């Protein structure tokens, strides 16, 4: 069977013109980098988080295509009302990026049940609730993109992050099942698994632990850390027409960590 549609021009293939992207955890770190790249690609973005001052500052820096809204993803009961608020204030969402999360470094012996549940509520149950609230709009439109921020811990074990790894591994199942259920309705579902990316937080951690820094670099074939922009442009690609047949994947953006030895 041949596809008789015209070949995309470069400016069209990676364009997000006409898209409205809701990005949780969008005011800082990788969320902000994804927002920045999507604005550059032509999308309007809504930054979602809990801290008004950070959201306002990030949206102002990104310019007129950026807005913001307050929502705590762990407050799952509020997700339907938040979805209605977004639609009323900004229009119909076409891209949802489940990026909000919190890092948690403890062994299982040190982690109590309340801490474990809170981490799962933030990453897994929060993403479930917001996705469920946003999907009807996408189904109504017959198109949409869901993107999850996974992790290297979705693939292999790291010390003292079992709870975080549990949550990020759950994303892989969510992505695959949602892709099967939703892609017939015009909604593609994918994830990005960032490798070791240089951010303010990671820089402080690595600078204070030279041995760990060398260990990370030694198992990264490219021999360096990534930058947030690397994740941002990967997000643009996965949500763009260029990736129209890419569905149900977890894309490592890791400099080769997963294939290094």
Could you explain the architecture of this structure?
The protein has nine helices and seven strands. It is of the alpha/beta class. The chain has a seven-stranded parallel β-sheet, sandwiched between helices. Strand 4, helix 5 and strand 5 (144-149) form a beta-alpha-beta unit. Helix 2 (29-40) packs across helix 9, helix 4 (79-90) packs across helix 5 (113-141) and helix 5 (113-141) packs parallel to helix 6 (162-182). The longest helix has 29 residues, at 113-141. It is globular.
Largest sheet: spatial strand order: 3-2-1-4-5-6-7
Report the sheet with the most strands, covering strand number, pairing sense and barrel closure. Answer: 7 strands, parallel
CATH architecture: 3-Layer(aba) Sandwich
Strand fraction equals 5-15%
Short précis:
By secondary structure, this protein is of the alpha/beta class.
Sum up the structure in keywords.
single chain; 261 residues; 9 helices; Rossmann fold; seven-stranded parallel β-sheet; globular; alpha/beta; 45% helix
Write the topology of this structure:
Layout: H1 10-13, E1 20-24, H2 29-40, E2 44-49, H3 52-62, E3 66-70, H4 79-90, E4 95-98, H5 113-141, E5 144-149, H6 162-182, E6 187-194, H7 200-207, H8 210-218, H9 228-239, E7 250-253
Parallel strand pairs: 1-2, 1-4, 2-3, 4-5, 5-6, 6-7
Helix pairs in contact: 2-9, 4-5, 5-6
């Amino acid at each position: 069977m041949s596809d008789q549609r015209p070949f995309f021009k470069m400016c069209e293939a990676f364009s997000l013109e006409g898209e409205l992207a809701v990005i949780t955890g969008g005011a800082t770190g990788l969320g902000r980098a994804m927002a920045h790249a999507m604005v550059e690609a032509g999308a309007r973005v809504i930054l979602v988080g809990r801290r008004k001052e950070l959201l306002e500052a990030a949206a102002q820096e990104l310019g007129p295509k950026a807005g913001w809204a307050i929502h705590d993803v762990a407050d799952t009961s509020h997700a339907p009302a938040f979805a209605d608020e977004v639609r009323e204030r900004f229009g119909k969402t076409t891209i949802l990026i489940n990026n909000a999360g919190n890092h948690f470094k403890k062994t299982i012996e040190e982690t109590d049940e309340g801490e474990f549940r809170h981490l799962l509520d933030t990453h897994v149950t929060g993403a479930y609730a917001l996705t469920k609230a946003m999907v009807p709009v996408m189904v109504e439109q017959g198109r949409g993109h869901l993107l999850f921020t996974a992790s290297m811990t979705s693939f292999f074990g790291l010390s003292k992050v079992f709870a975080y790894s549990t949550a990020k591994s759950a994303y892989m199942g969510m992505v695959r099942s949602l892709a099967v259920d939703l892609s017939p309705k015009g909604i593609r579902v994918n994830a990005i698994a960032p490798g070791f990316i240089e951010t303010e937080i990671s820089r402080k951690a690595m600078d204070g632990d030279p041995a760990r820094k060398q260990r990370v670099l030694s198992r990264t074939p490219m021999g360096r850390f990534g930058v947030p922009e690397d994740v941002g442009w990967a997000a643009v690609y996965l949500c763009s027409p260029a990736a129209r047949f890419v569905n149900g994947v977890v894309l490592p953006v890791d400099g080769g960590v997963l294939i290094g030895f």
